[in-house]
Write a structure and sequence with these properties.
heterodimer, A: about 575 residues, alpha/beta, six-stranded parallel sheet, 23 helices, globular, B: alpha+beta, five-stranded antiparallel sheet, four-stranded antiparallel sheet, 5 helices, 9 strands
Amino acid sequence: MQGREMSGAQIVVEALADLGVELIFGYPGGAVLPIYDALFRQARIRHILVRHEQGAVHAAEGYARASGKPGVVLVTSGPGATNAVTGITDALMDSIPIVVLTGQVATHLIGSDAFQECDTVGITRHCSKHNYLVKETERLGPVLHEAFHIATSGRPGPVVVDIPKDVQVARATYRRPGPIQHRSYRPRVKGDLGAIEAAVEMLAAAERPILYTGGGVINSGPNAAQALRELARLCGAPVTSTLMGLGAFPASSPQFLGMLGMHGTYEANMAMNQCDLMLCLGARFDDRVTGRVDAFSPDSRKIHVDIDRSSFNKTVRVDLAIEGDVGHVMDDMVKLWRARGHRPAITEDWWARIRGWRAVDCLAFRQTGPEILPQHAIARLYAAVKDRDPIISTEVGQHQMWAAQHFRFEKPNRWLTSGGLGTMGYGLPAAIGAQLAFPGKLVIDIAGEASILMNIQELGTAAQYRLPVKVFVLNNEYMGMVRQWQDLTYEGRHAESYSDSLPDFVQLAEAFGWKGLRIERPDELDSGIAEMLAHDGPVFVDCRVARLENCFPMIPSGAAHTEMLLAPSEVAGTVDAAAEALV
Amino acid sequence: MAAPNTRPLFPEEPAERHTLSVVVDNEAGVLGRITGLFSARGYNIESLTVADISDDHAVSRITIVTTGPRRVIDQIRAQLDRLVPVHSVTDLTELGPHVERELALVKVAGTGEKRVEALRLADIFRARPVDTTTGSFIFEVSGSTSKVDQFIALMREVGLVEVARTGVAAMARGREKA
């Protein structure tokens, strides 16, 4: 292909356009001015001006998670880059494909402690999937194409490209490269057929199987969610999902047990504990899922399908590991199951026991009295919007767990949450990113009053681009999850977990040009939600909820699945030092 | 009481010593990626050597000696393998017969019988004096890690001043490329 000579800044724009990038999230500054000028003089790529670089990265994550396409961020050197670090780490922990372009001081100034200089590649080396410092303009095109390849293939993740200002100004020839054949990076997509055969035989012979599914099924794409449905239908096993995997399997299916783990359902955790075969699909045996490792599902054989070999045997020993894209592996399992004419060996007794656990009705709550229970607020919100196929983002804390428990997802890419890193302040920018990917969809950030303040400035971004994002705050005036742990562990001594001096959220929202609403009593809930939905612009709902409600069920840190607390009456208020030391 | 997060996940396994040969793109920051991975995940490094090994300076070989339970060693291999600039990770200990060598410079000071004894011991270990004054020697000794360890231990008794070691370079035996 014929190359054209242009500036480094123009190469950035040209390469992004060639890579199919439609919009980028960013914030200008001295070290990226040449790229901003090149963006100004073109119309192919839209730039979304955020209010803080952390917001840019979470918006790109929300965009990526909702659309399946990589999110792109552009920030300046120094504080621009360091402000992006939390978002980059968040994307690494949750395997979200994003590319972060950072400006850097001119190459001859690097290492001199120049104005707004920081060691961006050094700082981001261990919180990105890969990173680059591009020192020659002619390397920019190839590096950008490679960066997108790495961010989006294999186990997805964030890639940082640090571009000194003189490299943006100098001229070089840009050529659109062909398909990328990386020298050393070749993620495996197809699983080993022998191992897949063994997995199918184990699954077919299991009497008490369970499918334990995670975010990898969503990352693999819509085909993987389809393959999961097919595999579950054929083998008849119950299905549970991690926080990150919600939506990959329809919540309305009778086979779905709900989320597992620390705040998962009783039936999901008991079935994990009692199964004889666990098929882990694109999940990673996170500590929030396993509870106490030495008591985790003691009598099962375990099969682990993951695209990242380093996930195998990291925390839990498995009997069969299959390295590959979970969608491809499930496709092969479905084909083999059919070709061999298998009939599941799953027993009626297994389903009878699951029905028994379900009968505990662990998520039940009773809305009585003058205070709105947060679970009730989410249940009413769900009832009002479920037919509109909404996209839900969350912040981090009690509201996030209640949303995961009481909102039900039928399709992938509808649930945006910070799972691995647990980043308060994720939800509003993520909702903005998702709304930009799907301008016509209903996008709601279910938030807490403490988390929302961590990136509250992004209200301005939504206002500027007239994005009809809804923020639904469950306001209990506490950092609720911190307070809950203080109730469980420190006899209710609430050290610094009260959200003192809160703003008037309605006035705050209105100051940013949003519509603000307050809901205070149970009888206002449905009408308040209806009013929120009726407004075609951004709406901020300050929903006052019961201040001391805690999130159950809960497996306390360091406890086994069978030691689940179902109700506040089971809380002792103290734990031993060993449990206290666990996060 | 032991803190629970220091409890090994797979407590039944004894620690093993493994020598890993890692071929990487010879690019800025690659060593930082590898050492950072070890420190971030709490893996041990007993020794680490790195040098450019190709005509065009495109790739380097990093030889890492590490210790840990079998599963941790497997984790280290998998974690190294997923770094983008890593071409290959070979566990030479797992692979079987291989050669491991390191070189040390050992400074010894002393006079009289100690000085004579130092020279005698050096001769037995095929250590070469590469610098001498009337009161000191620097010996160059090479061989397996245990041989170098033994030589240094003996030198302690005859006036050891300081030691510089290269760390292990290693390669599989036979004609094949590992």
